[in-house]
Write a structure and sequence with these properties.
Helix content is 36%, strand content 31%. The protein has 367 residues and is of the alpha+beta class. Strands 1, 2, 8, 9, 10, 11, 18 and 19 form an eight-stranded mixed β-sheet that branches. Strands 5, 6, 12, 13, 14, 15, 16 and 17 form an eight-stranded mixed β-sheet that branches. The chain has a three-stranded antiparallel β-sheet with strand order 3-7-4. The protein starts with a strand and ends with a helix. The chain binds flavin-adenine dinucleotide.
Length: 367
């Protein structure tokens, strides 16, 4: 049996690392185990929104500008129509997952987190965590093991009220970013988003409900993007992932709590998965210190509300007719899009968000 710690985090992705950092900030001893070794890659749109940057800074992590590429807003493109808005504050960062992971691990190591890399967790029981060849005890066990979480099952937390699933593929292209916006292209049955991640590279992610649709085939529906990428070398291989949104009945029980994608996730289209995980980690660490996981349950639900709502609104735009009308409303009145982006990154009050919803409704009726 290995020496125990206050908190054992299963999964050393962004959510697990954020939880470890937050717990160390509050003086708890922390062990993190991951079946892989750093830097861990994962298919992702690689956009860290301004609220995500602030949340990461609260955990003591600043990402040097040279590790990524700043962008100042979001652009929606649907056929001939395009609309863009800058963030109401700060800027966002496109950062390759491997860079983000390396930087977060460095900070966690400096903060005194103990790591077990290439260590597969095979079960939990009470305060014991079972690894391939050993076991360890911990007061708290945190499942940060991603969308297919086994901790969720072991902890009896798999019961969900809703589950939606889409399929994603991403590849990097060695092309200088042509825009200082993250671009979201709406196609017939899929979306493509392009994130600048360095002065010489972009990350292209495809999301759809079709598990068989791949990037090369999807790009045929987006000739503007295909043309820009036609001579660009690939900076990575195409990798797939499932983007799952679950609404779990509970995210904690006894001494077990879930964080990040393990705790439900939010559709990849929002670009808010990382930010949400960082906020959850911060909240969870507070609740571990006060030994009150019921506060985590309540706070987790509150944190998910805005990103889940934004995901639903954005996915309504999959319907072509509605999208055409909304895009025309945005083009006629770009302020509507600006307000929507402000709501998206948590910079508007519920009242302002509601007023914006009404304004959009009015815009739809009058355009
Ligand atoms: C296509 C796509 C695009 C996205 N774009 C964005 C974006 O632009 N911006 C954004 O903020 N979010 C985005 N997201 C969401 C974001 O990627 C996720 O929310 C984030 O990766 C969640 O991190 P996590 O740590 O919870 O899970 P993961 O990153 O999946 O980490 C889980 C870790 O657990 C480990 N693990 C699993 N089981 C075990 C075990 N039994 N023992 C030990 N280790 C284990 C795994 O090896 C892994 O390292 C996107 C997602 C997708 C699919």
């Amino acid at each position: 049996m290995l020496k125990g710690s206050d908190v054992f985090v299963i999964g050393g992705g962004p959510a697990g690392l954020a939880t470890a950092l937050a717990a160390r900030q509050r003086g708890l001893s922390v062990t993190v185990a991951d079946s892989l070794a750093p830097p861990i890659d994962k298919p992702c749109g690689e956009g860290l929104m301004p609220d995500g940057i602030v949340a990461l800074q609260r955990l003591g992590v600043s990402i040097p500008a040279v590790e990524g590429q700043r962008f100042r807003g979001i652009r929606f493109v649907s056929g001939e129509l395009a609309v863009e808005a800058t963030f109401p504050y700060g800027s966002a960062l496109g950062v390759r997952r491997t860079n983000l992971h390396r930087i977060m691990v460095e900070h966690a190591e400096a903060a005194g987190v103990q790591f077990l890399w290439r260590a597969v967790v095979t079960g939990i029981q009470g305060q014991t965590v079972q690894l391939n060849n050993s076991a360890m005890t911990a007061r708290w066990i945190v499942g940060a093991d991603g969308g297919s979480s086994r901790v969720r099952r072991w902890g009896g937390l798999d019961q969900h009220r809703r589950k939606e699933q889409r399929y994603a593929f991403r590849r990097h292209y060695r092309a200088a970013p042509w825009s200082d916006f993250m671009e979201l292209y709406w196609g017939p049955h899929c979306q493509l988003y392009v994130t600048p991640v360095s002065p010489a590279e972009v990350c292209v992610a495809l999301i759809s409900k079709d598990p068989g649709l791949r990037l090369d085939q999807a790009l045929e529906a987006f000739p503007q993007v295909a043309e820009r990428l036609s001579n660009a070398e690939h900076g990575s291989v195409e990798r797939g992932a499932v983007s799952v949104t679950r609404k779990l009945a509970r995210v904690c029980a006894g001494n077990v709590a879930l964080v990040g994608d393990a705790s439900g996730g939010v559709d990849a289209i929002t670009g808010e998965g990382l930010c949400l995980a960082f906020h959850q980690a911060d909240l969870l660490a507070d609740c571990l210190v006060s030994s009150d996981l019921s506060a985590y349950q309540r706070g987790h639900r509150a944190l998910a509300r805005r990103p889940v709502l934004m995901a639903r609104l954005m996915l309504l735009l999959e319907h072509q007719r509605l999208r055409a009308r909304v895009m025309r409303a945005f083009v006629t009145n770009p302020e509507l899009f600006m307000h929507m982006l402000a709501t998206h990154v948590g910079a508007s009050s519920p009242l302002e968000a509601a007023a914006n919803g009404l304004a959009l409704g009015w815009g739809l009726l009058t355009t």
